[in-house]
Amino acid sequence: MFFKTNFSYSNSNKSYSNLLLELDSGNVQSIYFYPSKREIDVLYKNGKKEKVPILYNDQLIIEKASQNNVELTINNSRKESSAANSFASFGLFLIFVIAIVLILRSTSKLASRALGFGKNKSKFITIDDVDTRFDDVAGVPEAAEELKEVIQFLKEPKKFTDLGAKAPKGVLLIGPPGTGKTLLAKAIAGESGVPFLSIAASEFVELFVGVGASRVRDLFVKAKEKSPCIIFIDEIDSIGRQRGSGIGGGNDEREQTLNQLLTELDGFTDNSGIIVIAATNRPDILDSALLRPGRFDRKIEVTLPDLDGRKKILSVHSLSKPLSQNVDLAYWATRTVGFSGADLANLMNESAIHCAREESKLISDIHIENALDKVTLGLRTSIISSPNMKKIIAYNEVGRAIVSAVRNGINSVDKITILPRTGYLGGYTKINPDEDIVSSGLISKKILLSKIEIALAGRAAETIVFGKNEVTQCSINDISYATSIVREMVTKYGFSIIGPISLENNSQILIGDGLLRKESIIADNTYSKIDNEIINISKIALNNAIDIISKNRILLEKLVEILIIKETIQNNIFEKITSDLLKV
Ligand code: ADP
Ligand code: MG
Prior knowledge:
The protein has 21 helices and 15 strands. By secondary structure, the protein is an alpha/beta fold. The chain folds into five domains: 16-78, Signal recognition particle alu RNA binding heterodimer, srp9/1; 89-116; 123-301, 3-Layer(aba) Sandwich (Rossmann fold); 307-377, Helicase, Ruva Protein, domain 3, CATH 1.10.8; 387-581, Methane Monooxygenase Hydroxylase, Chain G, domain 1 (Up-down Bundle), CATH 1.20.58.760. The strands form four sheets. A six-stranded mixed β-sheet has the order 5-7-8-9-6-10. The protein has a four-stranded mixed β-sheet with strand order 3-2-1-4, with helices on one face. A three-stranded antiparallel β-sheet has the order 12-11-15. The structure holds adenosine-5'-diphosphate and magnesium ion (MG). Residues 137-140, 175, 177-183, 279, 313, 316, 341-342, 345 line the site of adenosine-5'-diphosphate. Magnesium ion (MG) is lined by residues 181-182, 234, 279.
């Protein structure tokens, strides 16, 4: 490539002896040698060019050529290869340089993202123009009231300080997901005339140790500039977890961030005009230092809404929707025990979607009913075509409904359906949760036993109707649900003959020898007792369910007959048929 001879070769007279003759006769003009090749290029005086094979290190040709004054040229082919080599290494070098540049650029981006946070103040989302108001947050009157007081404090601190009252430093909103904690914070932002600095706690935690801490510092520096103001930290459990927890003794970055937060909370004095509001749904895992007086000393519980609350939330979320006059939201509140605000908002949204899909102008009960089915039961899948399967599923569902009616009252059954939904094998019996249990969170042994009986009622009905050996695995999900409740009763709540002993989580994680071992501190003997108890309780529950359904065989057959034809039995029909026939 770099070296080019001017030869165009002819193939004649390639013999060595011929070349010697030609040399002697003085017909050769010049000879080109290639040291690494056993070949030479010959240029004759008549212009002919030729390649001739020679011996390695051929002295004879050189001698003859010099005797006859033939021009000798030696081509350094190494030059050629070294040139190629140097080109290749230049290429490699170039690739190397490009790679280094790319790596440097990406790390510097990362580093500037992490380290240059202080400069990048726009990270803080300042919610100034939210249009959320306290009126939008329904069903949590206590929480809203307390927060209004906090805002009052920021607006007119003098009114309070004159009376010797101290401003709260930190307010912790505690409640299950979807109950409106973030919504409340937005309402504060919307209502308060003060700046509102909001950040999700997970944004504090970055790849590098110390970044989170510096973000916390920056947040408070900015807050002090803007005081009086509110800082809102959402999902604080992601940094506020108990320190030293987790495998390996905790997470350095998270702990440093938390330490910084604690320091900052202590750092600003009372009445400095900064109030920190945080939200979490896991108060149990929060570090106790966060909760001590002087930090998040006010805790506001945002609970699941009660009947009245649900009605209000439903009406908040129907305001912008065309609701038919016949729809009674109070009724729908009774049908949605245990729903959170987010669930209710979703329900109304789904209703509007159903309405739109049917091209109706107004949302009616039918649309809400369909939406409720979709929200609680999942999407409808294709209809069961096999009559035999329909029959088996119908017995399963009606069996459950009857046991629930006997144990919890007839109105505990919301609806029975054999229309299959995704996630369920076959049908579904919707049982209303008890309002008291949902709001108090307390559950008795009796209630748990009835839950197990209801769960096993499908199997019970099949056993009665088809016989012991003809039962199907139709109730597979219910059996595993029943077993999980029984296990909790025995190992967690002390509801068995083993007694009030917590047998759960009784394994210790030992870190030693570089190995992670779990060592149980439950005796083998106790293990077999646990197993025996679980088996006993489950068997008794199944037998109870069998007794209840056997007593109500006529009702069972009647309901199954209707269910197979109609595919769904609503609670008013269920009540009508059951109230006459049910034998408790
Ligand atoms: P959380 O932060 O407690 O998990 P969110 O505040 O994010 O719950 O609630 C999600 C959505 O659910 C809200 O945007 C709102 O539409 C609805 N929602 C929740 N609680 C309420 C409530 N009490 N009143 C009205 N709407 C609510
Ligand atoms: Mg939230």
